[in-house]
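Bench notes, afternoon.
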Amino acid sequence: MNVGIIGTGAMGKPMARNILKGDHSLAVYARHPEKAKDLEADGAKLVSSSAEVGAASECIILSLPFDPEVEEVVMGETGILSGASPGTLILDTTTGTPKAAVDIAAATAEKGVTYLDAPISGGVKGAVEAKMTFIVGGEKEAVKRAMPLMKQLGANVYHVGPLGTGRAVKSLNQIISALNTLTLCEAVVLGKKLGVSPEAFFEVLSKCAANSYHLQTKLPQFIIPGNFDGGHRIEMMIKDLEIALQVAKELNTSAMLTGLATQMYRAGASAGYAKNDISAMVNFLGSFVDLDFSGK
């Protein structure tokens, strides 16, 4: 398949590398091409616009931070739609709003281009190891077309419903991830205040009812080594939670814990942790009791 990718950041670049491991050609557009030179060395073709990706590709993967960037690369003056042929498929892994997915899909349909909202979960490690989960909204036939590529990039693919539902389910995932991590960080701080090291905390609670995905990832990858670089940044989790709150607002449904979590992460970002993984909230919470988990 002739594949294109736009967005070669923490998640997009490992996806690009895994695409190149298959029997695919790969066209890449990066706003900062110097950051994608290593992909060119691996066999990708760097192009100068989203339109060129559209012209070169049967399926285009988007891995972008926010809805406005998606709208620009799809519908902008030099966007995908100005170069793509009818029948092209866009697989958008961006975590954005369900409404924006529906609106973008309507614009692509006018050009005969099919759009799927397919946010991913599994973190950078999952992207590198091709073990991500795809949560997909869109037409069944389009999902079937994209399935071989998603199976190459991830371990699980779930078609959850029509356009927008992939992003909706991802927002639910982010609520739980955000709250689980905050709970974990608060408990680690209290444990250390009691004289229980993060290492002992991890060893014991891994065998208890408190065990979880976040305990198994955030403690050994970030909190125990005291390095909070990489991962899912606090500033991005704030964006994700704001999407969830918008969904709740549109449904006239309360989301009190989500609102509280959003305010806590905003406070952590204001305290200087915006670019760190969400587990850096352990340092924000620890600062109130003179504890620091960095640089151990």
